[in-house]
Amino acid sequence: MGTTLETSLSKVKRGPNRASYDKQHALDIIDGALMCHLGQTKDGQVFVTPTCHWRDGDYLYWHGHSKARNVKGPVDDMEKVCINISLLDGLVMARSAFHHSVNYRSVTLFGVPERIDDAQEKQRQFEIFLEKVSPGRWSQLRPITDTEIKATGLVRIKIEEASVKLRDAPPIDDPEDHDWSVWAGVIPLERQWGEGQTDPIQQIEYPPATTPKAF
Amino acid sequence: MGTTLETSLSKVKRGPNRASYDKQHALDIIDGALMCHLGQTKDGQVFVTPTCHWRDGDYLYWHGHSKARNVKGPVDDMEKVCINISLLDGLVMARSAFHHSVNYRSVTLFGVPERIDDAQEKQRQFEIFLEKVSPGRWSQLRPITDTEIKATGLVRIKIEEASVKLRDAPPIDDPEDHDWSVWAGVIPLERQWGEGQTDPIQQIEYPPATTPKAF
């Protein structure tokens, strides 16, 4: 029937809510998502930036223009950033408005980003990223150039300070509401990769690219 | 063929990237998503929290346990929070790794949250939220109680400082790569609400709940 994790851990302070720490859960959520939300500050103001991420071992990586805020800022400032990765899985429809909820998987990471400057390592990481997005595609592409590697900033944080929250369960109603005459249950959110839309300037149609397991 | 908005505005500082401001775009993105990412600070540390949101006119609302960080914190501290709402729409597969991208819609909002304490207004907002999640459902539910209203914190920010970014276009490759023999195009991410999974403790099956237009 699914689970609602309510145990907790992590070195992270949390609200009065479902929370749990389990490294494999964290890694699965990281690998199951293409996009994270990076929180950082500049001159005291919080910024949240959506960013594509990938993982290599115990490190979470992201890239961007070498001058972009989400790449340059936190490294220069030695700031401990916060990254949240969330996947909405379903709507939990209860008998009362109060007990409505969502099924979801979420991991929150904290760490001081480290910039990677070595060109060879950068290229290796970009290949790992592309392997996540489209397995086997890297070797089919026009090879990456030194200029492109230089123009792209690469940063990472170690995955060690993390908090997992997830809900995967039917509604939990007050017992006295169980017979209330309204439908109750979960409506799942389904995601899939659709049919590839070939670039209109492409003359010959090749097999479309492979799709990721992440969303 | 779709568009890549590259014009800009907003009172918000941005990276060297696609950016635009158009209020209707911002409202459409807000209404098209169920979940936002709220950035706030506590004792100098950034936190990013995924939160369901809804809109009433020019205000963005969210709720939570009245003692939860994302409800209590920013109001008490008079902090200007940052909220990002993003929808991933597709993978942009180019002929070079460098020109790979994603199609997406994203709005970033800034504001000092304001708490709503009036019980009648809180109830009205929770009804607007439920109308977004499942049109017509509110009147079918076991009515909300005063205790439930009290236990639920409600906050809002005015939608006035906003930055929209979106990409909706085929790959943009270097002209000399156009004949490179690899498939190039866009792979769309498709989302839909699946078949309702009736609560196993429910004895009678009613018609499942209506689904939202947002994801």
Which characteristics define this entry?
homodimer; 215 residues; alpha+beta; Pnp Oxidase, Chain A; ten-stranded antiparallel β-sheet; 4 helices; 19% helix; globular; disordered N terminus
Q: Number of helical runs of chain A?
A: 4
Percent in strands of chain A: 35-45%
So what's the overall shape of chain A?
globular
The multimeric state of the shown protein is homodimer
Provide the domain count of chain A: 1
Question: Helix share of residues of chain A?
Answer: 10-25%
CATH architecture of chain A: Roll
* CATH level 1 name of chain A: Mainly Beta
- The first-to-last residue Cα distance of chain A is 24 Å
Gyration radius of chain A, rounded: 21 Å
Largest protein interface, residues of each chain: A-B, 101 and 101 residues
For this structure, what is the CATH homologous superfamily of chain A?
Answer: Electron Transport, Fmn-binding Protein, Chain A
Largest sheet, strands/sense/barrel of chain A: 10 strands, antiparallel
Runs of chain A in which pLDDT lies below 50 for 5 or more consecutive residues are 1-20
Please write the string of helix (H) and strand (E) elements of chain A. Answer: EHEEEHEEEHHEEEE
Reported by name, the CATH topology of chain A is Pnp Oxidase, Chain A
- Which structural class do the helices and strands of chain A define? alpha+beta
Give the overall average pLDDT of chain A: 90
Per DSSP E runs of 2 or more residues, the count of β-strands of chain A stands at 11
